[in-house]
Protein: Sporulation integral membrane protein YlbJ
Amino acid sequence: MFRSKVKTIVLSIFITILAASLISFPKESLEASVRGLKMWWEIVFPSLLPFFIVSEVLIGFGVVKFIGVLLEPLMRPVFRVPGVGGFVWAMGMASGFPAGAKFTARLRQEGQLTQIEAERLVSFTNSSNPLFIFGAVAVGFFNNAKLGIILALAHYLGNICVGIIMRFYGKDKGRHQDEPKRKFIIRSAFSTLHRTRLKDNRPIGKMLGDAVNSSIQTLLMIGGFIILFSVINTLLYHLHITAILAKAVEMLLSVFSFTENLSIPLISGIFELTLGSKLTSQVQDAPLLQQTMMVSFILAFSGFSVQAQVASILAQANIRFQPFFIARIIHGILASIFAYLLWKPVYLRFYQTDHPTSAVPVGFFEKGSWVHSFYERMIEAGPIITIFSLALYTVILFFRLQRNRT
Structure:
């Protein structure tokens, strides 16, 4: 009871300070809101919407259960999650934050995951997508596509290690742990696919409408969090709270012989990963290795902005947030360690020699490449895709309301 009262008082004070800060810094708050809206409008919405819609349709048709039966022999012994976790892992890696949480929550609601399995799965299936790591961070911020190799390897190797560590989390309860082994996996997979499709007897049109409706609702929520934390980050800076926190972080960085000027980028990255990564790349007196390790930590921790999005999604499916938060800290530490360990054998060996080799190709992500051009065109076309999708969502919602009235 006492803890609950303290929590209420703390939250009330925080909201009051936030409201007063918005009134005190209206111009700065508006600019921060526009920056957050622009990020959601141009990049987040158009890049995540196709993955969300396709995943909803795949779940409805039973394709996810089909994949789950095939991947059961891999996912169960390694990560102690059902085979459907392989689908979530692949989609989360391809589409980026917070897709892994969205798909995990959806499968939990479908009854394909227990609570413990969902908490294990979500801990290592939320990751940054390769296009953001190479296109935005390596090329856009550091102007160095080769750096993307280290960032990507550190990020995904750290995620795999988190998944292996989290397999020891919790005790399995329910039917999943005692499922019999299947001799004919392919036949069982097709049988599961067929049964799932018959069970979900919605027409294709309604299934697509539900997929669009659910996906856009989730993306609207994500947009709200992006704008909110963009404003909070700006207000913390103008209230000099960021500088105060940076002083404490400087002491920690000095223990590891890091440049003290990386403290403010780290604080900013703890709240919002894009801003933190950008500020880290702008620290001129920091060695590139230190910048790489810092960005690796920021990308893995993913920032309170992404974590708030994940917490909101998980709450809808009765999945606890605490294991995910602990996993993000572990992932951040592991990603920084991997960046340090891979620096000499990968980056210095292949790219900083007199005769650089192409053993690890990055030409696809260089400026002027088709991948980088695609990334820039996606940003240009992002607002058009967003407007069209929101208009479609409005039409679907209108007809559904009209149908319910009649």
